[in-house]
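Example 9 (inverse folding). The structure is encoded as follows.
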C-alpha cells in the first residue's frame, strides 16, 4: 500500500538548542527523511494535528498565539455584525463562537507561560468590555457580574476533570 507522501510532515523535538550538538553528524541524519522516490522531506517547526499545533521546541506558544488571533477575529466579526450589546445577546454569542474556539482541547495545551495565559485571557477581557453597562468596571468585577470564570480557571477545572476520568 502506498501512502500519500504530501500529507506527511517530519518533526524533530529538540529541547537542547546547543549549536554544537545540532551540527553533529548523527543528529543531522535524524532531521531528514527520504521518501520512496528519494525525495528528502525537511523538518517542520510545527505541525497541526486535530486542530492543535505542536511545536518542535515542545512549547504551546505558537498554538496559543494562533487560537488567540482566531478568537479575536471571531470576536471582531461578532461585534461588527451585531449592534445589540445586551448582556444576554453578547454572552450567548461569546460562549458559542469565541469561547468554544479558545477552549478546544485545552487540557492538552494548557499554557504555563504568563504571556500565553495573558494572550488568551485578553480575548475575554476585551470582549466583556464591549458589553453594555460593563465598560467602566474592572475585569474581575465584570466576570463577577456576568457570573463567569476566567479562562485560566476554566482550563484548570477541565484539566482536573480530565485527570479524574483517567
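The amino acid assigned to each position is listed next.
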Amino acid at each position: 500500500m502506498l501512502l500519500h507522501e504530501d500529507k506527511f510532515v517530519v518533526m524533530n523535538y529538540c529541547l537542547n538548542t546547543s549549536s554544537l550538538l545540532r551540527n553533529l553528524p548523527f543528529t543531522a541524519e535524524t532531521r531528514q527523511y527520504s521518501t520512496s522516490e528519494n525525495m528528502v522531506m525537511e523538518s517542520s517547526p510545527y505541525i497541526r494535528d486535530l486542530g492543535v499545533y505542536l511545536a518542535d521546541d515542545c512549547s504551546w506558544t505558537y498554538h496559543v498565539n494562533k487560537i488567540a488571533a482566531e478568537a479575536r477575529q471571531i470576536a471582531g466579526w461578532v461585534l461588527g455584525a451585531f449592534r445589540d450589546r445586551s448582556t444576554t445577546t453578547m454572552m450567548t454569542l461569546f460562549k458559542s463562537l469565541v469561547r468554544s474556539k479558545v477552549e478546544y482541547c485545552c487540557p492538552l495545551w494548557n499554557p504555563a507561560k504568563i504571556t500565553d495565559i495573558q494572550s488568551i485571557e485578553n480575548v475575554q477581557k476585551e470582549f466583556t468590555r464591549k458589553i453594555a453597562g460593563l465598560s467602566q468596571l474592572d475585569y474581575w468585577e465584570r466576570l463577577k457580574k456576568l457570573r463567569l470564570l476566567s479562562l485560566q480557571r476554566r482550563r484548570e477545572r477541565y484539566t482536573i476533570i480530565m485527570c479524574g476520568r483517567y
